[in-house]
Queue: 2 jobs
Job 1
Amino acid sequence: MKTERIIVKGADDQAGIRQAAQLLRAGQVVAIPTETVYGLAASAYDPEAVKAVFVAKGRPQDNPLIVHIADKEQLSAVAAAIPETAKRCADAFWPGPFTMILPRGEKIPASVSAGLDTVAVRLPSHPIARAIIHAGNLPLAAPSANTSGKPSPTSAAHVLEDLDGKISAVVMGDDCEVGVESTVVDLCSDPPRLLRPGAVTVEELRRVLPDLVVDRAVLAEPVKGQKVASPGMKYKHYAPKTETVLVEGDTAAFTAFVNRQIGGVAICFEEDAKGITCPKLCYGTTRDETTLAHEVFSVLRKADELQADVLYVHAPSREGVGLAVYNRLLRAAAFRVMDLKETEKRRKGNVQP
Ligand code: TXA
Ligand code: MG
């Protein structure tokens, strides 16, 4: 299949918007930019088109998709009930990088939600994404537009790297502003539950949902055989081909550690860089979690090109958007964490005064 590049200069570029919307109405799969990551969109009402999304990504059948709408009024077309909490969240966080889990409406095929009786819904803020949903007059089921398991795509080039020849078209937009996928909150559970951290932070969520709990899968490895609230959280994910280890510790401990390794590449903060003697790639500074989120997937893709034996990634703080970056890196590393703080403590503990 030839993958068409659709050039869209902005939300008022009617020709490109119309072309993308027509393909989607005809049951085709089209990658579109959103403010978080690129999405692989298909009509949420069309089970065949939805199936094609799973096939193109190589996505496991039990991992449900997010349905994207263009305005709040469309929510009642995709959800069977809209609780008070959903209205509050929509007012606070939409349009934007926020997804809520609600009871699934009857027009949404079971395959969108991998057989669950719930549906994930998001109203993106990206003007081109919204213009395409408007023009097609359809809600769009759209997972991230990467091959399943690989780092999510934050540019049109990343999408083509994974899916050229496998999908009908890519809308060629700018790089994504946020860089990590939306915050996902389950409003069908009581109390509401954070399933995936994103740019809408726990602190912001608790202002609207004071009793919000954080699902254990956000920071812990799933126990084999145990049911998970969000199926997407159980897979090794966002992963470069190269083996990856997440390293906790301060600048001095991290630089000393990576300098002792052979054949590794350090994915580090700017503060670390001058002390590092092995190959390295920086993804921002410790104090700026927003930039780390913006860069994290792109640096993982770049690191793969260096063909190292191991990638050692300096772990960010879990504050604010840092929690989302940490969550993605934990999965990229398949939960392999090296805690230099613990090693340091143990070493000091063993030294007799
Ligand atoms: O920012 C985003 O959310 C991007 C852009 C394209 O909008 N989309 C995205 O989709 O990240 P995806 O498919 O890569 O991730 C969807 C996540 C998965 O972890 C999935 O398990 C979870 O949402 N999810 C979807 N429907 C669900 C449901 N009904 N119940 C629980 N989790 C659900
Ligand atoms: Mg994804």
Job 2
Amino acid sequence: MDNKNKRDIEDKNANEKIDQLSKAFNEPGEFLTNNQGVRVSDNQNTLKAGERGPSLLEDQFFREKITHFDHERIPERVVHARGSAAHGYFQVYESLADYTKAKFLQDPSVKTPVFVRFSTVLGFRGSADTVRDVRGFATRFYTEEGNFDLVGNNIPVFFIQDAIKFPDIIHAGKPQPLHEMPQASTAHDNFWDFISLTPESMHMIMWVLSDRALPRSYSTMEGFGIHTFRFINEEGKSRFVKFHWKPINGIYSLLFEETQIIAGKDPDFNRRDLWESIEMGNYPEFELGVQVLEEDELEKVEFDILDPTKIWPEEDIPVRKIGKMTLNRNPDNFFAETEQVAFHPGNIVSGIDFTNDPLLQGRLFSYIDTQLTRLGGPNFHEIPINRPIAPVHNNQRDGFMRQTINKGNVNYEPNSLGKGCPMQALWSQGGFASFPQKMSGEKVRKRPESFGDHYSQASLFWNSMSDAEKRHMIKGFHFELGKVQYMHIREKMVEHLNRINHALAIAVAEGIGVEPPTEDRSNRYNKSSPALSMDNHKTDSIKGRKVAVLAANGADYATIEKLIDLLEDEGATVKVIANRIGMLKAEDGQDFEIEQSYAITSSVLFDAVFVAGGKEIANQGDAIHFVNEAYRHCKPIGAIGEGVKLLQASSIKAIKFAGQGEGVSSELGIITAGKGIDIQSFFDQFKEALAKLRFWEREEKDQSQIPA
Ligand code: HDE
């Protein structure tokens, strides 16, 4: 079916829906009731003593409605307050019985339901999606043997090594307590004061200052379990494991400047993308990967496997892809599901176990504790989104908001009156048993020496970045540290950076008014790990890409339609934009519809621009700004015929545009053609550029983008 037909069918379906709704409106279906099921006859007026008299306390409908409203808000999460979620399923590729007895990792035909919540960390619940921050990537597997929550992030390491420091790092990063500024940003004194005094944060800081902290969409970022866990097989053999989520769609980020503009143009940018992708059937997909280490192979890893500020480089210990997760259903109700979901790293199933990572150990306490305040009592596991699909039988009873109506008279164990039920399960019956790790040691408050090198993996990260990624990090530091008021904090940070990489320290110092260091104080750790650069995780697909088509009266609509068909067939979306919403007249006289105007959109919301022309377009300031901005952000730009005139009127310099009868010209991701050329060849080149997505070479030409 071609796209035109598809669109016609969509229109028809939409019209039918509207018909149904208006019918339902005229023929009453459900009556409005109060919470006791009593039908309400007037939902517009309170009960009063006379039309102009005082309201009566007796009005049970009013009191019930307002009381409920008064208590609609629950405390937002103290961290990860801003989030969006989706349902889906997970399937393992082949049985992992050798490694783990976890049942959901045995049979490739089993689809395990999942619920995934993506989030930012520091911003309040209503903050913008695209801020520079770590992203939460929390997955619940509703397995036959109970819930397994992999509560991870999109960065594989963390700021601190010990859980006791968590309240401090979070206090430092959140808005300052004096005036509650800035919102959802670490660019302030308190954060950098804390970091400058916390060398163990340096590796994480490199990630947070990289483009990894600015994901283009939730479906194009990685996820990591961070801590080392254990896999235990049926025989009780334990191996160490790190979990990874690898997006099928590749890893892509936004530019910092784009994220800042998007935060105003569309604060729900990532949330909207997730929602719309699922509605359109462009389901986000991630492969679950594991790095597995035998107990006697610890020398393969340079650092302590219990240290959450270190990765296991993928080149040393490859990531084995063990299964795929597909997110294919949006939640029915944001509050009931996304807001009330209560993840907990302690939710694991038999066949998976913890290690002594001191950050993980602290988390195992925190997550249940926080729900008591956030969800109001100990029965939050009974909220539908938190209920396992595995049956629950135990002797826990009562408490606020208890839903389960336990039957029978026995609520203790051991018992004979209930025939001993519910019974404990043996390992062979699926019972969870902790790995019997040998323990010894003095009771101390100490960090092991093996946690002591805070700079080598920070250097590893820097060494692994492409030139463009390095440039972006330096600009990130200029912003973050440039906003710090205290010179001694900026200087201290430059000292740390000088231990990571001398050139980095100089480049950062030069942008923030700090004397650049003269002596290289790094330990010259020169390894790199190609897997760390996002440039090595691109795909050829254009699935999910968003293209803006700019048009004005007199545009060549036949070409626009062809382009839409071609791109939509491969999973991209196209929006036609002009200076006003409504109808325009095409070159051939037919009317065509404009869905978005410059007033409501912006180039930062798209991955590429195609200028379809129309005579007046080269005189429209908004259109000129649109392509200038797309050019600055290194995005593909295509233009044919009169569209080329808009590029000529813009500030895109040093590019040779194709003129009439000159075929297709392509330079730095700008693809142009005169009229009457081989349209297919134009489209092929535009599509290739759209897959490539960014032409960083443009930044190299733009002197303002290069650090001095
Ligand atoms: Fe969390 N974290 N965290 N965290 N975390 C919470 O639990 C905490 C840490 C992560 O979408 C809270 O239900 C401590 C690392 C995600 O609902 C809270 C420590 C990682 C989410 C909490 C950490 C995470 C949370 C707040 C240091 C990556 C959102 C609300 C020991 C591996 C889950 C809640 C969702 C949420 C505590 C560190 C990931 C307060 C004490 C490391 C993705 O319990």
